[in-house]
Amino acid sequence: MKSIIVALALLFSVTAGAAQQSLYQQFGGKQGIADITEEMLFQVGGDERIAHHFEDVDIVRLHRLLTEQICQVVGGPCEYTGDTMKASHRNLGISTGDFNVLVEHLIRAMEKFDIPTSAQNQLLAKLAAMHNDVVEE
After folding, report:
1. Is 89 annotated as a binding residue?
2. CA-CA to 82 of 20 to 30 Å: which in 30, 37, 63, 104?
3. Can you spell out the DSSP letters for the chain?
4. How many domains, the chain?
5. Is 12 among the domain residues?
6. Is residue 1 part of a domain?
């Protein structure tokens, strides 16, 4: 019985610690976000379903801008310096399917870096609001 109480106390202290961290901290700060973004872009480059959308893109610049944007979205000290989502995706023919594939890769990247599911869901909810500015259907 004592070991169960100790295990529960340990579990609650770990959970409480994660809850006290800001969303930005749960993503590992700017470097953690940069790592996740890099992993996502690496996966996208090998995915024939959407890689064609990135063929003529300056990937280094895109990585920097996505890192800034995600950092800002999760409450970090970054400022997104790119164009609006609507302007940067205009006339690219991005479908809901394309959008969803990118989200799949983002989720895989976040899982690879052990981002808590609740933190993932918070980011995804914020990014979902951009759907209509990115997709042209």
Report:
1. yes
2. 104
3. -HHHHHHHHHHHHHHHHHHHS-HHHHTTHHHHHHHHHHHHHHHHHT-TTTGGGGTTS-HHHHHHHHHHHHHHHTT-S----S--HHHHHTTS---HHHHHHHHHHHHHHHHHTT--HHHHHHHHHHHHTTHHHH---
4. 1
5. no
6. no
Specify whether the CB–CB gap between 22 and 75 falls below 8 A.
yes
Has residue 2 been placed in a domain? no
In 3D space, the residue among 134, 123, 122 whose CA is nearest the CA of residue 40 turns out to be 123
CATH number, position 41:
1.10.490.10
Range of the domain at 106: 23-134
In a domain, 130, yes or no: yes
Per-residue pLDDT of the chain (137 residues; tens, 9 = 90+): 555 554 444 445 445 555 589 999 999 999 999 999 999 999 999 999 999 999 999 999 999 999 999 999 999 999 999 999 999 999 888 999 999 999 999 999 999 999 999 999 999 999 999 999 999 87
